[in-house]
Amino acid sequence: MFYKMTYVNFILLLLGISIIGVRSEKGCVALDTVSFDKILSKFKAVLVKFDTVFPYGSKQEAYEAVCSASRVITELLVTEVSVKDYGDKENLDLAEKFGVKKNDYPVVKLFINGKEAYTFRPQKDEDWDEKNLKNFIRAKSGVYIGLDGCYEDFDNLALNFTVSTTKEERQKYLNKAQEILRSTNSLHKQKAGEVYVKYMKKFMEIGDKFINQEEKRIKTITEEAKIHITKRREFDHKINILNSFKIRDEL
């Protein structure tokens, strides 16, 4: 975490951009018309949210969660552009440059190697969440940003496992997952690894329908029962790990 913020601050200092713009508690950087073009080319991927000056609500909370998760990822910079349509109309010209309109706020765009590439467009309003934002970043940029409880090496194995077409190929990825599980010294990663391995085995036993069945089972438990917050977090992590086995639709 310290390394990422130090790296960001260093880049901003080199560019003559005030560090005051860095919202270190969230991992986000506030951009304006002057700093925007300077910063884009310095990172492989830059996520930009165009929004009102004082955003709030579930979408803002989801974006802040992505900001926080990005702090340890040096290839990715998560930023915000606050747009005023009154007074000095700060950053309004920047929003207009990219075709962003007030009625569409918040608008999230992903820039790859300094060039605008993609706009986050979930099909349903309820899909505007942390999970889909992270999947969007991963699918479009190739930069890994994991969901809570997930790990990059296990996630890569899970996706390769899913797209494999033979039992032999899937067994190969299961074996690799078991090797990583045996070699890890982290208790949290070990617990997560056990879930990945368990799901791979169930997947091979039951077939592709296992993912949806398990997801429905967990959601039923969490919706109908009073569960301690710690246990609920475990179930949330399991849902996130299940998501790693899905072939993601690009948003």
TrEMBL record:
Keywords: Endoplasmic reticulum, Signal. InterPro entries: ERp29, ERp29_C, ERp29_C_sf, ERp29_N, Thioredoxin-like_sf. GO terms for cellular component: endoplasmic reticulum lumen. Residues 26-148 form the ERp29 N-terminal domain. The keyword Ligase does not apply. The keyword Secreted does not apply. Residues 1-24 form the signal peptide. One of its GO terms (biological process) is protein secretion. Residues 149-245 form the Endoplasmic reticulum resident protein 29 C-terminal domain. PANTHER family: ENDOPLASMIC RETICULUM PROTEIN ERP29, ENDOPLASMIC RETICULUM RESIDENT PROTEIN 29. This is Endoplasmic reticulum resident protein 29 C-terminal domain-containing protein. It comes from Laodelphax striatellus (Small brown planthopper).
